[in-house]
Design goal:
two-stranded antiparallel ribbon; mainly alpha; single chain; 343 residues
Length: 343
């Protein structure tokens, strides 16, 4: 290592200008690496503002666009706990669906108190997380298999519970509450942002959050270090399902009803936001703030293109491309990290 490193240091000493340019170049590269998508977001925002100033850049459009992302932000955030623990949960859309259907059926159809309906929906979501976690951790079934089957099961149960009908009549009081405008955007949006900040704080500033991230990086080393890997992973599954269920409560509260099968289309957007978020601010990590930015970045692009006359297929193209981009960036981060460790 000494024989290799000495010529580098002499070269740097012999060229002071290159030595000065090095840190500056690295600093700008770091900014582009961490905030590149944010800069692209700003660029497309300005582009759509120029191309359709009387439509895109209006208070009504921006308010509607941000307000409509509340439940998707929360569903995307629900992906993170299990991903951070090194597993994957494909049942989030199913958990969202069963929670929304439970609230809709209990309150909108059977006229049970809205608070009781919400508690029942969240309890079911927690139960889903427990089943997913136990089958994955205790039995040893691959999480992707368990949660894929669970998602299909939950959607089927939702259709049966609703009798294949569109549910309406959910508490108008709750609807008025979550749709209350705050700075021109509904309260549901700010609730999702607040939950994202709480998740960020948990990962960065609590022992449990840091331990889960450690487990996701190397579960065996974490186990040898004395961490309760099984319990923490089980907790991650429960938190993921709880947040997914909460997003279901939110979506049915905002709309006042739902068609149960319609929420399955949110699975890909949620994962697109979560994976693309791992390429923002702290590349290579599943971070809540990056996820929120990613969801809003995708929403801005889709909204702008639709206003310019693009057809509905643009949604799938945008979300699919986002997943590919995010996975590619994550792979590049991993390769670069390994090279740095080997030098």
């Amino acid at each position: 290592m000494t024989l290799v490193s000495e010529p580098r240091s002499h070269a740097a000493d012999s060229d002071p200008q290159q030595h000065e340019r090095g840190p500056s170049r690295n600093r700008w590269n770091g900014i582009g690496y961490r905030y590149g998508i944010v800069l692209v977001w700003v660029a497309i925002f300005l582009l759509f503002s120029v191309l359709s100033p009387g439509v895109f850049l209006t208070t009504n459009n921006l308010s509607a666009m941000l307000s409509s992302q509340a439940s998707l932000i929360l569903l995307s955030l629900s992906v993170l706990p299990v991903l951070a623990a090194g597993e994957i949960d494909l049942s989030i859309a199913g958990a969202m669906t069963i929670a929304a259907t439970t609230v809709g059926q209990l309150n909108g159809v059977w006229k049970i108190d809205i608070a009781v309906s919400i508690v029942a929906a969240l309890a079911i979501s927690v139960l889903v997380g427990l089943v997913n976690g136990l089958l994955t951790i205790r039995v040893g079934v691959a999480s992707i298999v368990v949660t894929l089957g669970m998602s299909t099961l939950l959607v089927g149960l939702s259709v049966w519970l609703s009798n294949t009908l569109t549910i309406t009549g959910v508490s108008p009081e709750l609807g008025r509450f979550v749709n209350t405008p705050v700075l021109g955007i509904n309260l549901a949006f700010w609730i999702s942002i607040a939950i994202g900040i709480l998740l960020w704080y948990a990962y960065r500033h609590t022992a449990v959050g840091r331990h889960i991230v450690f487990i996701g990086q190397n579960a065996e080393v974490a186990r040898l270090s004395g961490l309760p890997v099984a319990k923490l992973k089980l907790g991650a599954f429960v938190v993921t399902s709880f947040l997914a269920g909460l997003s279901g409560v939110m979506v049915v509260s905002i709309a006042g009803g739902l068609q149960p099968t319609s929420l399955q289309t949110l699975l890909l957007p949620a994962f697109a936001g979560a994976f693309l978020g791992s390429a923002i601010i702290d590349p290579g990590s599943h971070n809540p703030i990056g996820t929120i930015i990613a969801v809003l970045f995708l929403a801005t692009g889709i909204n702008g293109l639709i206003l310019l006359g693009a057809e509905s297929w643009v949604n799938n193209v945008f979300y699919g491309a986002a997943v590919i981009l995010a996975v590619t960036i994550s792979r590049i981060v991993y390769v670069r990290a390994r090279k740095k460790n080997l030098v």
